[in-house]
Amino acid sequence: MPFRDRTHAGQELALRLVEWAGSGELPSVLVLALPRGGVPVAAEVARALHAPMDVLVAGEISTPIRPETPIGAVVADDPPLYERQSLAMMHLSEDRLGDVVVRERNELHRLEYLFRGRRPPPSVDGRTVVLVDDGLATGLTAVAALRFLRRHGPARLVLAVPVGSPRTVASVRAECDDLVCLEQPPGFHVTGEWYEDFAPVSDLAVTRTLHGFHATA
Predict the structure, then answer these.
(1) How far, in Å, CA of 104 to CA of 67, rounded?
(2) 3-class DSSP state for residue 205?
(3) Is pLDDT above 70 for 56?
């Protein structure tokens, strides 16, 4: 397995980005993590780049029939992004998922308040935004997040992950200006297979990590 845990993955990812930043190609960097799993990875990247860090809360949409299989993603109050092939296979329509989307959006708002309180989200306008997660499987959440960020005017939009599906990496690349993925194993199925320790990241761990950055900002 290439990574011991998310901290190790973040350190390896940071090495690649620090080398890139040293060339002057990453000015005015803002690191954004997709919680929860992306937070410990992004923290190492932000520390290495001496950059501010925050979270962009996004949620997966699934169904009670197959809760382990995401069929969509949602960010803030943006319209949901769906995987059309999955909808067709399950004989579902967007209208039938309205209640699911409402519940997921309410959960996003709860997490945003938990992680950020009354502090406003950071402005991405004119900045180099590095969006970080712990892996790229279906890519639905990453695409929804990237499209949300693009509409807010970053100068450069970078997606950085330690590991990802080669097929997903290829399809997501068009959504950002640059994509950094350290490992693209041909046998990729789920992100957790590529970590020795892939324990869940708690809400408390997320808030403590963010507090550490904001306390020194």
Answers:
(1) 13
(2) helix
(3) yes
Q: Where are the alpha helices (DSSP H) in the chain?
A: 6-21, 38-49, 84-89, 98-116, 140-150, 166-172, 203-215
d(CA 42, CA 190): 20
Residue count of the chain: 217
Tell me the pTM.
0.94
Report the DSSP beta bridge partners of residue 55.
Answer: 33
**What is the distance between the alpha carbons of residues 104 and 108, in angstroms, rounded to a whole number?**
6
Which H or E run contains 128?
strand 128-132
Nearest to 191 by CA among 141, 156, 146: 141
Per-residue pLDDT for 69 more than 60? yes
How is the chain split among helix, strand and coil, in percent rounded to 5? 45, 20, 40
Alpha-carbon 182 to chain mean position: 15
Among 140, 146, 139, 147, residue whose Cα is nearest residue 164:
139
Residue pLDDT, tens place only, 95-142: 778 888 899 999 999 999 999 888 899 999 999 999 999 999 999 999
Nearest to 26 by CA among 43, 14, 38: 14
